[in-house]
Amino acid sequence: MAILRILTIPDPVLKQISAPVEMISPQVVNLIKDMQETMTSSNFCVGIAAPQIGVLSRIIVVDVSLNPKPHRNNGLLVMINPQITYSSGKLKSREGCLSVPEFTGNVSRKDKITVEYLDISGKKQALNTSGFESIVIQHEIDHLDGIVFLDKVSSLKTDIFKRV
Ligand code: ZN
Q1: Number of domains in the chain
Q2: Which residues sit with Cβ closer than 5 angstroms to ligand 1, an ion?
Q3: Which residue range forms the structural domain that includes residue 127?
């Protein structure tokens, strides 16, 4: 396993659309382990997407139990080719991102989602979630489509904050 370097804006890789995973090869499994280790090595990091470490594959790893605040959660989630198949409600919250180290921003997202994906053994799964975990999953899936949270804030003047 290895802790990998996180790409930060304006790296052009972060703007690319990632390709679906065709086969869960040993390389894919190793990549997922590295993503997991990279995520847990960063303080308060609760999610990572493959493009953030320079791999344009549709893989995200999320674990909101790593956040010090208690949130309802499903522990470690490895999602391959994730797709949101249902969403409802709205939730606005302050987001941060390892790829945008200098800023946080207010972003509006869906509250409840259903996400379908393959787990690490290639089994099809569907997860219903809401609140913080739902937000993190939506944020990570955006990375697979070349979108960072800065692209989603409604006002560049009032909804972006410099980290101190
Ligand atoms: Zn991010």
Answers
A1: 1
A2: 97
A3: 12-162
In this prediction the pTM is: 0.96
Over residues 25-50, mean pLDDT: 94
- Give the separation between CA 18 and CA 112, rounded to whole angstroms: 24
Query: Smallest Cα–Cα separation from 129: which of 140, 143, 121?
Result: 140
Q: How far is the CA of 100 from the centre of ligand 1 (A)?
A: 7
Does 140 participate in catalysis according to the annotation? Answer: yes
Distances in whole angstroms, Cα of residue 126 to Cα of each of 31, 113, 117, 141:
22, 10, 6, 15
Closest by CA position to 137, among listed 61, 29, 31, 51? 61
CA-nearest of 81, 77, 72, 66 to 141 is 81
Is residue 3 domain-resident? no
